[in-house]
Amino acid sequence: MFLFRRGTDRLTPEQARTRTGDGTAVLLDVREVPEWRAGHAPGAVHLPLTRLLAGAALPPDVRDRPVVAICRSGHRSQQAAKLLASRGVDAVDVTGGMKAWATAGLPVVDERGQGGRIA
Q1: pLDDT tens sequence across 24-74
Q2: What SS3 string covers the chain?
Q3: Is 105 exposed, middle or buried (0-12, 13-18, 19+ CB in 10 A)?
Q4: What is the largest distance, in Å, between two alpha-carbon atoms of the chain?
Q5: Residue 12 has what pLDDT?
Q6: Residue 9: what pLDDT?
Q7: pTM of the full predicted structure?
Q8: In this prediction, what percent of the chain has a pLDDT beyond 70?
Q9: Where is the Rhodanese domain (predicted)?
Q10: Which of 12, 38, 55, 117 has the fewest CB atoms within 10 Å, i.e. is most exposed?
Q11: What is the pLDDT of residue 1?
Q12: Mean pLDDT, range 113-117, rounded to an integer
């Protein structure tokens, strides 16, 4: 059973945090390494869209779970959700990306777990 309509639905940052915070889904950050290092959502898993487009497999802790993709502004995550859906993954993305996440007052940490910023 799918929790989302594959690759078509978009969640608000608050909805994404609820679904990933309770373990229903995993938050997959598809931004590039420098963006990730500067700031990401706590508990997110990192896999850049460029690697997904090149055919990279999902990390083990993401496989067989619903995915909520996130990027900086929502464009790359929308691409990622569609790509993942074409691979049979139950995937949606976050409208507005990490910029909207931070604007909503949700936590952002850097690579050391300290207060991060959206790059």
Answers
A1: 999 999 999 999 999 999 999 999 999 999 999 999 989 999 999 999 999
A2: CCCCCCCCCEECHHHHHHHHHCCCCEEEECCCHHHHHHCECCCCEECCHHHHHCCCCCCCCCCCCCEEEECCCCHHHHHHHHHHHHCCCCEEEECCHHHHHHHCCCCCECCCCCECCCC
A3: exposed
A4: 37
A5: 97
A6: 83
A7: 0.92
A8: 93
A9: 21-110
A10: 55
A11: 44
A12: 93
The residue annotated as part of the active site, out of 71, 89, 94, 100, is: 71
What b/e readout covers 23-61, taking b as 16+ CB neighbours within 10 angstroms? eebbbbbbbbeebbebbbbeebbbbbbeebeeeeebeee
How many C-beta atoms lie closer than 10 Å to residue 115's C-beta?
Answer: 10
What are the structural domains of the chain? 10-103 (3.40.250.10)
| Amino acid identity at 93 | D
